[in-house]
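batch_manifest entry 22 of 60
target: sn-glycerol-3-phosphate-binding periplasmic protein UgpB
source organism: Niveibacterium microcysteis
requested by: lab member K.T.
priority: normal
notes from requester: please return tokens only, no post-processing; we will run our own comparison against the previous entry in this batch. if the run fails, retry once and flag.
--- input ---
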Amino acid sequence: MNTRSLITPIALSLALFAAPAFAAPKSAKPAAPAAASADIEISSQLPKDKQEALQALIARFNESNKGARIVLTDRAWDAGAPAAAQILDGASEDAFLTGKQRYKPLFAVVKDAGVKLDVAERASPVVAPVAIDAKGRLLGLPIGLATPVFFINQDVFRKNGLDPAAVPHTWAEVQDTAGKLIDAGVACPLTVARPATVLLENTAAWHNEAFVNAKGEVAVNGLSYVRHLARMASWQKSRYLQLFGHGDEAVDRFASGSCAMLIAPQSAMPVASKGGFSIGVSALPYYQDVPGAHQNTIADGPALWVSAGRSAAEYKTIARFVAFWLEPTQQVDWMRATGYLPLNRAGYFAASSRTLGAELGHIKIAVDQLIATPATANSRATVLGSSPRVLQVLNDELDSVWNQGKAAKLALDEAVARIRALGIR
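--- output ---
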């Protein structure tokens, strides 16, 4: 049985932005140093830039912590003996949560260590279902939340006679801009990272369209889905749109200067900015003729899980590390280095400040997409939307549209049929 299916889809909130996730009691004394001096391993296979940011965070913690050191390893969670904690996402997280319980709930870890866990009163349904139990308590900590936004290479716009400050806001504007770029000789006007997540799940939520129907089944073959995919297919044929893979390959193409526009998670900014050109960021495009647009997008990302069966000293060090991670200074450094969303209110306020507004503007745009409009029954995140098996089917069928010319309606009908045949709910 998949443990994920037992987790109530009350997500770790963007009430993370409305109330602190962790706060030490005012009367509490600093925790005593851990008795053990052995290194405490956290394993992770984050992308290189995120891994480097995590290593820097751990180094700062180790300098301030009078006790055991935390060490970061780059390995799969099931490659050898389990680490004291692991950062997991996608298929690796799904496998970790399948079968016997391999983790100690984070709320228990911090409670035993004397760190108060403040559960937000209002959980947000726009964060993909993660490690939250039926009582709203954290089982794991989502450390890398992200949602898709729109990037442009302002230098390419300027060079080809387009206003670099005019980031397209609607799909019609994107089409018009792509056409002008093609006419100017730009080989790749637009590319999209994580196309199944962006073009189906998030575009649906942004337009208040259900991704999952009342029966709990994926329902991506309605008229609005077909219309959107058919438009994307026509763009791909005319080379307005180019696709490079199911993950973040498109981000590298944009960073290289090959593509003028990019739709990708806001966490792509650190890599995208390595291209050395000016970048404009705006919200995900929307259709003006769809009632209810724009609604909200959905956030997902890797989470920290603490292994079961460790010593009290290890748990105490991990709890202190989590508390350290949530300090405002660390939050700012983490957001700057990774592009991930803030983990609590302090991080959100920092990202919204005038001092950091320009540097972290992409994060504020992402947060606004998530919380500016209250989510509806149609626009909420679902377990199926973050299921690796569901995403694989959707990507397969999208590939058949891009590479084989399959009709949008047929591809989406077959995607729905295949997912239902898998029995995933």
